[in-house]
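Supplementary Methods, section 5.1.

A reviewer requested that the exact input to the structure prediction be made available. We therefore reproduce it here, unchanged from the version used in the analyses.
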Amino acid sequence: MSAAGGQGALGITGILQVLPHRYPFLLVDRILEVEPGKRAVGLKNVTFNEEFFQGHFPGNPVMPGVLLIEAMAQVGAFILLSVGEDHSRKQLRLTGLDAVRFRRPVTPGDQVIFTAEFVAMKKAIVKVRGEARVDGQLCAEAEIMSLIHDGGPEESA
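The structure derived from this sequence is encoded token-by-token as follows.
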């Protein structure tokens, strides 16, 4: 099933309607697939213009691992936030990470495919398993726990 219930991939406009993240912390360029409550796939085109490459590392640019995990979590958010209509009132807060492994550096010019799969939910804590791949090669993986709660931005009067 493709993103948004069969309407094709979600571009940046659709992503902005679901996720509360904005520049410079929106780390997903496109959502390729969503199976609400089960699985999501997204991508990021990594360019040399990314601000973090100025200091990580000059002369040897490498995408920080923590940002790979954040991008995985953002793709994982689509598993839950794509269920229902009122995305603006739900938020996910990172609560923990398990089984984090970094296998290959991500560098400018790479296109990272992030896959997140639902693992479990207990009360308001949800667990997803995420992977980041470039050209089919595993770059990073993690189990990500987040608290889901109502509390999105207040509506303007």
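The longest strand covers residues 137-150. These observations are discussed further in the main text.
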